[in-house]
Design a protein that fits this description.
The protein is mainly α. It has eleven helices and two strands. The radius of gyration is 19 Å and the shape is globular. One of its GO terms (cellular component) is plasma membrane.
């Protein structure tokens, strides 16, 4: 039993890492009142940008590859900010369009990188006898940092006030539009970082659809954890463990492999239904999904 746990835990942490990073980005967006359903596309673009830089030369700087993923994620999210904050378009429609644009563009532009080797990957670190990616440790640190920033700093309070009551924040001199744009850019950068992990550490290669629906699970995970960064750690680990178990059980169970593959997405529906019954949606920022227009109630 102990050996099975030691074998499963690293994989659960690995799968949970991109979920946690993307979820933290979504929390940052939504605490400011902006929904971004395009995390899947932003992750895909971030993964492509990171791999393209890392595979450009045998001695390519991996830090530059990570930076490229951050910039690519922020740039794509910038389109969402332009549409929803500046032009006040429907946030849900814009997010869905962003997911399609991101995954489509990554799939098309990434054709030239399929089958190419990654000369060097981000090496794992051994912590407590478990090999962990630096991305995993960074994700855990970012969760703690975001939780502290939102709860205990003036700027974090400003961002939360924009998500709860943008009119009141505006009266107090807060630039609501700027805060929301910066939150969307920051959330996009974190989703791009999640993609960089897939390309540089987890898979160390490029393949079309390498995000495999993780972005959509991250969107649901935000609701499941009640928009709280520290809860996101446990939620990401839970879904990561479910992913890891599906691979272990496929070979030893009579249940068809397609059933195990569908389990994470089925569980997303279950936890969202449970959250709705228990009133978890009541934890959502009051102005979530609503564009702000000065003078309108």
């Amino acid at each position: 039993m102990d050996n099975a746990l030691l074998d499963t835990l690293p994989r659960a942490l690995a799968v949970g890492t991109p979920l946690l990073l993307a979820c933290l980005g979504a929390i940052l967006n939504e605490r400011a009142g902006v929904v971004n359903l395009g995390l899947e596309g932003v992750m895909a673009v971030g993964a492509l940008a990171a791999f393209a830089v890392a595979a450009s030369a045998p001695d390519a700087n991996l830090w530059l590859a990570v930076g490229a993923a951050l910039l690519a994620g922020a740039a794509l999210a910038g389109l969402h900010a332009l549409a929803t904050v500046t032009l006040r378009a429907n946030q849900f429609v814009s997010g869905l369009a962003l997911a399609l644009i991101g995954t489509g563009a990554a799939g098309l532009l990434g054709k030239r990188f399929e089958g190419l080797p990654l000369f060097n990957k981000v090496p794992d670190w051994t912590v407590g006898g478990i090999a962990l990616s630096p991305f995993t440790l960074a994700a855990l640190g970012l969760a703690a940092l975001l939780a502290f920033w939102l709860a205990a700093t003036r700027t974090g309070l400003t961002l939360r006030s924009v998500g709860e009551n943008p009119a009141a924040a505006d009266v107090l001199g807060v630039n609501v539009g700027l805060v929301r744009v910066l939150a969307v850019l920051g959330g996009g950068a974190l989703a791009g970082l999640a993609g960089a992990f897939l390309a540089l550490s987890y898979r160390s290669s490029w393949a079309d659809n390498m995000t495999a629906g993780l972005g959509w699970i991250a969107v649901a995970l935000v609701i499941f954890v009640g928009w709280r960064p520290l809860r996101a750690v446990a939620g990401a680990l839970f879904f990561g463990l479910l992913y890891a178990l599906q691979f272990r059980l496929q070979g030893v169970s009579a249940v068809p492999s397609e059933v195990w593959s569908a389990m994470p997405f089925v569980l997303v529906l279950v936890v969202l239904a449970v959250a709705g019954v228990r009133g978890q949606a009541g934890d959502a920022p009051a102005a979530l999904g609503r564009p702000y227009v000065r003078g309108e109630r």
